[in-house]
Amino acid sequence: MSTNHGANLYDLSNKLGFDKNELKDFSSNINPLGSSSLGKKAIIDNIDMVSIYPDPNYYNLKKSISDYCNCDIENIVLGSGATELISSFIEIVNPKKAVLLSPSYSEYEKELNKINCKIYKYFSKRENKFKVNVNEFINYINTNKCDIVIICNPNNPTGFAFTKNEIKIILENTNAFLMVDETYIEFTDTNTYSSTHLVNNFNKLFVIRGTSKFFGTPGIRLGYGLTCNSQIKDEISNHIDLWNINILASIMGEVMFNDLDFINTSSMTLKSEREFILNELSSIDDLEVYHSDGNFILSEIKSKKITASELRESLIEKKFIIRDCKSFEGLDEYFFRVCTLNHDDNSLLIESLKDIFKNEE
C-alpha cells in the first residue's frame, strides 16, 4: 500500500474489515467541512450539461478564479489538478539545476528526475523548528546557480510558510524560475502569505493552486496556475488536452470560488481547530510539536517510547489514521503528521493519543 500521499481508504477498509466511512482520516489534509453546497447544487441543477462540450476557453471559470485570487484573467492556466501543472511547468522550463525546499512533497523530485535535472536540497532543520532564513536560502540558490526553485507554501509536512514579502525578496535576488505550490495557502492568512498578487510583476514566477484540499473536491480534479509569462502560458496550453477540465468541474468551480459563506466559515473553523490541536498536542510531554500554517501539524515523538509507525498502527485499531512521516527525506521514524477534522473527531484523537502515551510509561 502506497504511503506517498496519505492513506488509501479503500485498501485499508478491505484489509481491516471496516467500512471506509468509519475511518477518521487525519492523513489527507482535506477540508472536513466538505465542499461548497452552492457548488454541489450548481452541478445538480445543470446535470444535463454533461451532454455538451465545455467552453474551450473556460471564460466563466477563469473569471471566478480571477475574482477569487484578485489576479488578471489572462494570467490563468487550468489543469486537471495541481499535479498536471507541476509536471507541465517543469517539463517546459527544462531546468538543468533545481533547488527543492526539503523535506517536502515527493512529486517535485519525481518530475525533475524525469528530465535528468540535478537536484539540490535545502533542508529545513529540526533545531530551527523547520523555519527557513530567507537570506540563507537565497545564498544557497545563487551559490548553486540553479535554474528553478520549487517551494510548497505552506510546506508539507513541516507547516512552514514564507510570507509574500519573502517570496518577493527571493524573486528580486535570484535569476531562477520560482514555482510556488499554494495547495495549502487558504488554510492560513492569504494576505500575508499568498504570492498571487506578485504574478503580474514577475515573469519567472509560477503560482499553482488546487481545489482538492481547502475546497474539499479531490474528485473533480481541478487545479490552476498563475503566470504573466506568455511563453509559459502558451506552452502549457499546448501541453494539455483540449477540454482538459470536465464540464461538471467547470460548473462547480464557477460557483464555489464565489461562495463567500463557505470560504469564510472554512477559514475561521479550520484555523480555530488547528490551534486547538496544536495546544492539545503540545500538552503531551512525549511530543515535540511544530507550528504550522497549513491544515496539518508535524509532531515528533521525542521520548522515543514508540515509533510513528507503531503509533499509527495503534490508532488504526481505534479507526483513526495519521501520517507516518518517515518517508519524507530529512525526517526519521519518530515523526508523524495529523490534519484537522471536526472538533469531536479532533478531541477523540487527542484523547486516544494521551491514552497511548500514558500506557507506554
Short description, anyone?
The chain is α/β, with parallel strands linked by helices and 361 residues long. The protein is 39% helix and 16% strand.
Would you mind describing this structure in some detail?
- There is one protein chain.
- This protein has 361 residues and is of the alpha/beta class.
- It has 13 helices and 13 strands.
- The chain has a seven-stranded mixed beta sheet, with helices on both faces. The protein has a four-stranded antiparallel beta sheet with strand order 9-10-13-12, with helices on one face.
- Helix 2 crosses helix 10, helix 3 (59-69) runs parallel beside helix 10 (247-256) and helix 4 (82-93) packs across helix 9 (230-239).
- The longest helix is centred in the C-terminal third of the chain and has 23 residues, at 260-282.
- The model is unreliable at 1-5 (pLDDT under 50).
- Its EC number is 4.1.1.81.
- Pfam families: Aminotran_1_2.
- It is an enzyme of class 4 (lyase).
